[in-house]
Each structure stands twice: as C-alpha cells, then as structure tokens.
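Problem statement: downstream parser choked on a complex file, so we are re-checking the raw output for the thymidine-5'-phosphate run. The parser issue turned out to be on our end (a line-ending mismatch), but while we're here, posting the original submission so the record is complete.
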Amino acid sequence: MKREGFFITLEGGDGSGKTTILGRVAAYLQNHSMPYIITREPGGIEIAEKIRSIILDPAHTAMDARTEALLYAAARSQHLAEVVEPALEQGITVLCDRFVDSSLVYQGVARGLGIEAVREINRFATGGRMPDLTFYLDVDPEVGLSRINANQSREVNRLDLESLEFHRKVKAGYEQVIAAEKQRIVVLDANRPVHMVEQELVQVLKDRILKDF
Ligand code: TMP
C-alpha cells in the first residue's frame, strides 16, 4: 500500500525568509519527482483565506487574543479537512507555511494565553495531526523587521505593526516550543544568505525524507 505523504511545515519569525525557502524546497522535491503541494496558514482555501483577512485586517485592533487564537484554530481545521488530509492520504507531500507551532508561539507565548491552553484548542481543531518534519528559520528580530521594511511589495498586516518587543517574544516562544520537540523541529540559522540556509535544509531532506521515498 502506498504510504501517506510527508507533512512538512516551515516556521519562523516575520521576515525569516520562509516564503523564499519554501519555493526552494518545492523545486527540490520537483527535481526528485516527488508529488507535493504547497500551501499556507492561515489560508490556503477560500474559507480559511476569509478567516485570515478578518484576523490580519489592520483595522481590527480591538481583537481579543482568545478570539485571535480561536480564529487561527478554525482556519486550521478547515484547511486540514479540505487540503492537507486529502493530499496526505493520496501520498502527496504537503509543504505548509506555518502550522500549530505558530499558534503556540504567537498566541500562547507572545500574546500570553499560555502554551497549554493554545495546544488544547488546537488538539480539538486538528484531531492531533502534527507535521513529520518542521524547519524553524531562526532570525534575529532586528534582521527580520529590516527585511520586512525593505520589501515594499509585501502586504502589511496587523502583526507587522507589532513592536520589536513583540517579535522578541516570538523568538523566545519558538525557543521554548523547540526545546520540547528537538526531533521534529530542525533549527536553521536564517540570518545567513538564503543559499546557505537552503544547502543545510536540502541535506536534512535527503537524510530524513528522501531516504524513505
Ligand atoms: P505570514 O506572514 O507568515 O503569512 O503569517 C501571518 C501572521 O500570522 C504572522 O505574523 C504570524 C501570524 N500567525 C499567528 O499569530 N498564529 C498562527 O497560528 C499563524 C498560522 C500565524
């Protein structure tokens, strides 16, 4: 019987280069004739994209942290049901820009709701589905923010308007989440130029994914 597809996620602070790196991973899988889809959270499909626009609307400054956490979990649940689970079932690898770890870090730590409370609502939303492998692009908040500011074509969302202090909390949050899951989450130093990050990432893909394909 054909095995399930691999579920690979990318995590990182804002401006860590996730989108660029995701494109490189996709190209690598394509060169190895590995079927894949590329998607993102919050979003990926109509219902979840609509939830995304509510969450990230710069006008929604009144949004309560719990509301935010529940909306992310709602978008995640729909995205899993419509996109991720059907693909994995067909043996297709899913590359996803952000997943539960983002909620644990942004809502659990940076917004202060607590990792366990956020894990709990996400357990309900995901039915316990977790990635096989996660790459965390570790970038200094100052570097991340300067990249965001230099990229004029990027959408400016509500979270981009957060302070440097918030982004520092995000980094500390990732460190906390990673410490508990060193096997699943691979840390890549994303302060370096993209080609260096990519080289290291490809080596991990060879060792952890392609050997089983
Ligand atoms: P993006 O810029 O990587 O597309 O992500 C949009 C923003 O949403 C980013 O600032 C991180 C945030 N986010 C959360 O706060 N919680 C979540 O669960 C997810 C998926 C994203």
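For whoever reads this later: The chain has a mean pLDDT of 92.
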